[in-house]
Design goal:
Order of helices and strands of chain B: HHHHHHEHEHEHEEHEHEHEEE
Largest interface: A-B, 44 and 38 residues
Radius of gyration of chain B: 22 Å
Shape of chain B: globular
Distance between the termini of chain A: 45 Å
Strand order of the largest sheet of chain B: 6-2-1-7-8-10-9
Number of helices of chain A: 16
Number of strands of chain A: 1
Order of helices and strands of chain A: HHHHHHHHHHHHHHEHH
Oligomer: heterodimer
Structural class of chain B: alpha/beta
Number of helices of chain B: 12
Amino acid sequence: MKTEVEEALRGRIRNLDAMPSIPAVLAPLLRCLELPPDQIELEKLTELISCDKSITAQCLRMANSPLFAPGRRVETIRGAVVALGSRRLRDILWSSFLVRMAPKTDWPVNPAAFWEHSFGCAIVTQQLARKVGWHDPERAYLCGLLHDIGELVYATLLPEEFRAAVNAANERNISLYQAEQELFGFTHADTGGLLADYWSLPTDVQKVIEFHHTPELAPQPVVLSALVHLSDLLCRMQGMGYGFEELMEVDFADSSAWRLLREELPKIGSVDVARFTLELDAEAEEVRRLVSSVFQP
Amino acid sequence: MQSTVPGTAMDSRLSGEREPADPNLVYIRDLIYQVCGIFHPDNKLNFLRDRCIRRMKVRQVDSYRDYLELLTTHAGRDEEVRNLLNEITVGETCFFRCPPQLTALRKIILPRFSSSVPRLATRKFRVWSAACSTGEEPYTLAMISLEESAGPHRNVAWEIVATDLNDRSITRAELGLYDAYALRNTEPYFLQKYFVKDGDKFQLSSQVRSRVTFSRLNLLDESKLLFMKGFDLIFCANVLIYFDTASKRRVVEHLYNSLVPGGHFFLSPTESLFAITDHFHLVHFPGATGYLRPGGLSGPGSPMPPLSSEKK
């Protein structure tokens, strides 16, 4: 019985044409921003940004927001780029794309909380990657940011099922992943994997999206899946979750993700997780500002 | 043609970090963390700055750099660190001081304990407030115990032990008389149910007071600590910060042994045990971190390994 339902639902989510595609200008822009600050080509950056009206508008709006850049009024893209800085620009680029992904109908979750969780997880994964000495913190950021895109597929293509899963998670104080698994037999990790493939995201990013709840099953590089797994938990415990209470006790030392990281990156033994957790307080504040500025005009 | 963004100020902004704080203040922050384990994240640096400025006025220095010197190289540095810590923690004590810790207790730790009790049996849930000051913390726990004992976890009998080094604090705690400031975090529900207004003070009901056993205890007094055994939960906020590393390690070792396997230990929300011991597991609850003595209710108790074999 359940497998029939599962098959029917799986059929519906293959209809991914209903999901927006990645704008062409995004990839070269992000490449531009990945360079060290002293090598960033400002001309090229402003030129690329000016190709996209909504990104341009967003940059100017944020550069003139008292929350981000108090002081002089900014009139040009170039001025906005300098005022915002590369880290915020990257956030704006992704957010101006992701905002188009928001389902048109009512979400059963607070969209601001969803975006806070996504951007929070991006930053936390990146910081954690730095702390443990992983060589590519930028890739870690991307994996953290996109790890839950499967929820967007759920919300867009299976809105009723999504609502049922959110309600179950809310009522029983369990994770959305667990609720989806119990109700439908497949989760946002599966739907996210399909969307990542449809978008032709890099393979390692696809795999993280698919395995972020089961890092012990992830293919190499398992470090990325494990980092996102732990950052996801940290965000949910530190006020950057989906806005409903999950009653759990998370013990890193006892988790498979932590053991995987210990095997791959011995340096992790010297990481002060307590201090890292306290530092997240400042990150959460920044993420809330970003989200309130971008997603709630 | 390549145009790069000139100037170091812009470079620092392009690297995407927030406005850099005074490096000496950041240094003081890290010093405080190393010495006592209290950490101020970037968004709380204003608080630390404010407390430093209070001390700088007293000591009549007007730069963080000079003040840093008083904290590090000057003859009275230990005393100055202590004075600064006093400024940082002064007035922190109040009822319901750290709600996420209390939520973890009520919604996660206690239900798990309760469900481990065999049907039709009762078991004692033993809590120790190890630096109870003037009683706000253990009395908060006592009110929670009264609420929970009327709810689904009536199979749990609570025992609340409260100790402090300071005699006068204990005497005041036993009086149970508080001003409005101590009750700033207390919901009207608890205020109405458990307090009676007495002039500009609030008298705690005897029902709550009788649930707590107070005594004087020095956390460095090993002969007495040997009797503090079998606790399921220990609170110990803002005390370890005053000990040097060796004493801190000794106290924490005792606290570890005072817990049952699977028992929990809460510091103040900004303290950490990093580099003191790695026998505890750091655990995350919603909005709070705690320390767990591994072993668990079901498994056999793992005795604490000797501290000297800590590093492999």
